[in-house]
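Sequence, please.
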């Protein structure tokens, strides 16, 4: 069954507001009722045209035909205030409202000029019939009519900017989600990939030692259990959208991974007061430390690794040094993992430096802002 389209008197997005303004058309109807014959009929026809133009303008805001119906509405007010009753000029608040919807500055001032003429001509025409008290009554309202389009236009521009801001925020959220997916995939590859590689090496070693050294096999099996538990914990963290990681947690995790890989680990971070470091900074530093330790285990062939964390002069400094083979050339230093690290640090205006000399040294410096 075909659905019947509901007829709207006014667009639903404007709510009850357009209906309230209809109250102000009662008084012009009363003034027209005092006329006779053709003038009476013509007056009500003009009032009907005015009401129809009022409805059309709401549906045609910033669309084709808007200016035509606005001109018709202004013309009806002009005729009624000139040849029926001067008080009908107060209906000018209707077109004053719609003039404010013009986004184009030139169109706005053209419509405002036409509206000003519509107000001034009947005022001059009825000048001799107006008393001083009438002038004191009419002039403030005429000024308000001419000024109100500026207020409506300003309000519309603000609402438009707010809408654009909402759309921009939605796009930012989508970009953040996309970046988060890329980051999780990168962390899965870099962190979990290294752990699984280590498990593979351990299993091969156990296969070779199974007959010759049962005691060593038990030790290696125990380490494999610890590594697998660490891998499971990493997967849970990644799947749960990478919960916020504190620096002490990551230092302990890094030490366990290095020791499982038979790399001597030396950590110096006792003097740092972590409660004064924001959760965002701690999370990014932790992720960078995880990446650095992963690179040491996967690529360095190092036998020892030193991690030093200290805070001084409004800065947090992290230094990770190993005694491995280093990297061959400056151009090959920044792989995908290190590029990701740089991208994270840019969020908090951190710097990353990498050097090689009988091993590799990774140095990170991050400004720390303390709120009073």
């Amino acid at each position: 069954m075909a659905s019947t389209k509901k007829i709207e008197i006014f667009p639903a997005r404007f709510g009850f507001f357009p209906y309230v303004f209809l109250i102000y058309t009662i008084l012009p109807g009363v003034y027209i009722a005092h006329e006779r014959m053709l003038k009476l009929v013509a007056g009500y026809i003009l009032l009907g045209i005015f009401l129809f133009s009022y409805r059309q303008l709401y549906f045609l805001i910033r669309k084709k035909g808007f200016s035509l119906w606005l001109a018709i509405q202004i013309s009806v007010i002009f005729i009624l205030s000139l040849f029926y009753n001067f008080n009908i000029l107060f209906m000018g608040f209707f077109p004053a409202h719609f003039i404010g919807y013009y986004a184009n500055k030139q169109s706005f001032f053209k419509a405002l000029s036409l509206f000003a003429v519509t107000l001034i001509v009947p005022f001059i025409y009825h000048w001799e019939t107006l008393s001083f008290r009438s002038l004191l009554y009419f002039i403030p309202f005429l000024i308000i009519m001419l000024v109100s389009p500026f207020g409506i236009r300003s309000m519309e521009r603000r609402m438009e900017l707010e809408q654009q801001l909402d759309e921009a925020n939605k796009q930012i959220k989508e970009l953040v989600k996309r970046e988060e997916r890329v980051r999780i995939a990168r962390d899965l590859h870099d962190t979990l990939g290294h752990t699984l590689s280590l498990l593979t090496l351990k299993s091969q070693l156990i296969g070779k030692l199974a007959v010759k050294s049962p005691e060593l096999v038990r030790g290696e099996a125990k380490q494999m259990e610890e590594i697998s538990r660490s891998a499971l914990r990493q997967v849970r963290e990644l799947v749960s959208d990478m919960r916020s990681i504190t620096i002490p947690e990551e230092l302990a995790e890094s030490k366990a991974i290095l020791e499982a890989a038979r790399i001597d680990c030396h950590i110096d971070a006792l003097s740092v007061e972590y409660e004064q470091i924001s959760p965002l900074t701690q999370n990014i530093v932790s992720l960078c430390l995880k990446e650095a330790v992963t690179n040491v285990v996967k690529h360095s062939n190092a036998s020892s690794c030193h991690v030093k964390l200290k805070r001084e002069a409004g800065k947090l400094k992290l230094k990770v040094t190993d005694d491995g083979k280093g990297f061959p050339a400056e151009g090959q230093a920044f792989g995908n993992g290190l590029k990701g690290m740089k991208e994270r640090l840019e969020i908090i205006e951190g710097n990353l430096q990498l050097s090689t000399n009988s091993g590799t040294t990774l140095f990170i410096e991050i400004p720390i802002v303390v709120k009073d």
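The longest helix spans residues 132-212.
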